[in-house]
Specification:
about 190 residues, 8 helices, six-stranded parallel beta sheet
Length: about 190
Amino acid sequence: MTHKVILTDIDGVVFNWHKQFVNWMEMQGYSSTGITHHESDIHLEFGISFNEAQIKKEEFNTSMIASTLEPWKDSVEYINKLYNEGWRFIGITSFSDKPIGQYYRYLNLEDYFPTDCFGTMIFLTAGEGKEEVLEKFKDTNLWFIDDRIINVNTAYNIGLKPLLMEHDYNMHYKRDNVQKVDTWKQIYQIISN
């Protein structure tokens, strides 16, 4: 059986990485400004250097706590619904290129989704851009879901169908032919039409 494919980011789209990371940082004595930032700019949220934030993200993403991220809103219901309708997902995540981090990511996914739902995962270092990976899917017209504007723009420019998962840090984004979504129910409805 040939499956239909959706390319998707994981953090801020499938899982709520931000909430767990902020809680973890606060347990170590860091204080959030309360102004939400994308994980690539998380240093601004804590008033620390970019390098210190990279170290903290790597520490977090390679610890067991990273296997306990909560689902993003209604992701479980609608990703499983899409799965049951013959869709499969290729996860493209700037989470960690370390085997232990990847192991924790798979554990987290398997808590909520069938093993072959995310049968293919492409792991990049924390904060790494996705241009090179997305280029491999150029002109395929596949759906691509992400919360980072630069990745959505790249996907659009190379012939993918991007959807931007809306967050405080990307609400200002407007581009013809790129839809913003707030839930997986909206994604499901767009893809099903």
